[in-house]
């Protein structure tokens, strides 16, 4: 449902958030290794997330990536939109270009409900709530 970029981005953000919650900055190589993502790919994703100020980057020997406390309330929908745009909320289940209520694909009406539920979940779930509620090791790492 999400692009690989978005999957890795969500996993990276949640890993960084978990470490930031412990007042720890993490290096690119650590993030890449922990979320099992190619380092160059992870770098591109984190560049986008840093540019949009979801992730904070500090250079130097004591540097690394972190998420500032005020960004922990960021909703997952914002991350998805940064990395994948809004097509996940509008796209066809079968990937057809022409699919809507007037010209539906065979799955259109069932998929609309799934998309709406996904959008609601992403818009009501913050980074902080995921870090607080879940055991991230079993969810995002080493997949």
From TrEMBL:
It comes from the Bacteria. One of its GO terms (cellular component) is cytosol. GO terms for molecular function: DNA-binding transcription factor activity. This is Transcriptional regulator, BadM/Rrf2 family. The lineage of its organism: Bacteria, Pseudomonadati, Bacteroidota, Flavobacteriia, Flavobacteriales.
């Amino acid at each position: 449902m999400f692009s690989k970029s978005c999957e890795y981005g969500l996993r990276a953000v949640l890993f960084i958030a978990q470490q930031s919650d412990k007042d720890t900055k993490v290096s690119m190589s650590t993030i890449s290794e922990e979320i099992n993502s190619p380092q160059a790919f992870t770098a591109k994703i984190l560049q986008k997330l840093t540019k949009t100020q979801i992730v904070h980057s500090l250079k130097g020997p004591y540097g690394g990536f972190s998420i500032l406390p005020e960004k922990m309330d960021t909703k997952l929908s914002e991350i998805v939109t940064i990395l994948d745009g809004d097509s996940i909320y509008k796209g066809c289940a079968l990937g057809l270009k022409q699919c809507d209520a007037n010209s539906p694909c065979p799955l259109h009406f069932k998929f609309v409900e799934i998309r709406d539920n996904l959008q609601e979940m992403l818009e009501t779930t913050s980074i902080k709530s995921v870090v607080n509620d879940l055991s991230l090791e079993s969810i995002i790492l080493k997949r």
